[in-house]
Amino acid sequence: MGLAPLFAGVLIFAASCLYLAVRRTECDYPTVQVVHQPGTRSDPKFAVRNWVRGPPTRRATENLKPDVNYITTFVSSGWTNDVMTYGNMLYLSLLTQRVPILGPFVPSHLSQTAGYIPFGDVFDVPRLARDMGAPVLEWGDVKDADAGVEEELGCWSAWMGTSRSVSEPRWSWVPSVFNLDLSYTPLPYDHKMYPENDNEPHLLHGKLMQLGFPAGRARALSQSSPRTNTHGNTLAPSEQLLCFDQLYAVSVELQWEWFQDSSPVWRFVGRHMRWNKNAEALARLYLARHWGLEKSEPIPPFISVHARRGDFGDKCKFFGKNGTACLPSLNQLRRRIGEVQTKLLQKGVSTDRVLITSDEKDPQWWEDIRQAGYTWIDHAQARTDALYGEWYSPLLDGIFHSLAAGFVGTDQSTMSLLAARRVEEWNAGPTAFLMWVGVAEEDL
Predict the structure, then answer these.
(1) Nearest CA to 368 among 406, 330, 423, 311?
(2) Out of 11-20, 59-68, 81-90, 212-221, least confident range
(3) CA distance linking residue 432 with residue 420, whole number of Å
(4) What is the distance, to the nearest Å, from the Cα of residue 28 to the centroid of all Cα atoms in its chain?
(5) Is CB count within 10 Å lower at the N or C end of the chain?
(6) Which UniProt keywords apply (predicted)?
(7) Where are the domains of the chain?
(8) pTM metric for this prediction
(9) How far is the first Cα of the chain from the last one, in angstroms, to the nearest whole number?
């Protein structure tokens, strides 16, 4: 859940290196079982067995096929930003014609006891591979996280290539999950969109693509040298497994390109990242219960809202406002919902069902939401974390957003951005945004 164009030069650095209890959540539910899906692909040519030597091994390098080149990246920037990071890597895999290896999502925005959740428990990997027209692997297909031994690997630090003020690679839990000891080579600054601007972090897909080929790799290595890993060894970036510490702020041409309707990463990758079927079924069950539906009844049209407030309220002081005075008002929320309702009516869809999701902690705000006639799903009351683990509250909220006929999000939020993209693309639904940066008092 990210802050994008606002304070654009700052990528949030989650640098806590406390111990992570590596685990994943499996659970039983009376109707839906949420489990890790096995590594099969709907199209036989994308089957895992065609792209690795065999079952997960103790060392990743032992399971890579000698005639196949791969690409991977690691994540640690909050769930939605990590979705975008993996999307950027998948697009780069298409450009370089390499097989992507997706890691899990890690709890940089949750308590560390949440553990990690495999990418395939969140998204439908078989469908992603089919719709992208390319194989997609997960790290769990390649290496056994529980029995794996430590191995050394050379990677590129894209993070160090974003600014001369960055002196260390981007830290992530993922390498420790799979017992990787990494030696990073800083990316040369000429791989940036604006090489001389240390406050603008964007890297270019076309420049990163060159690292996957001999000439571009050699040119970059002539400008930069590997750093030592924890054992004091230096390794040049792997030629077979092209890897990066992070790939969040990466574009083809424009800054924050995911926000553009022409976004190549969205067009070729993001729109194909559909939900894991089990997770979506669970979300539908929650909605059916919320609306008091029988099992056979379809989910009625509704408008979903993502009102991000928590950490955004901390920014009000930068606009000369006290407390949360810079955040969108209830009146603006009503207006935005009304805009979406009007657009839905033009399509012949009438609904007064509005589902609110928010990180707001103030009980009075929620009481005002109730008085306005809007509803929400209380994950504490539903015991979502107790039943499924901490990952499922934000995951289910994200799925709720995408199942709506229309959506209202919060400007500057990447979670809202992706929700809007999904509703527009998957449901042909109208969207609107709660505006708060540079908004006149009377319009707030």
Answers:
(1) 330
(2) 11-20
(3) 8
(4) 26
(5) C
(6) Signal
(7) 44-272, 277-443
(8) 0.91
(9) 22
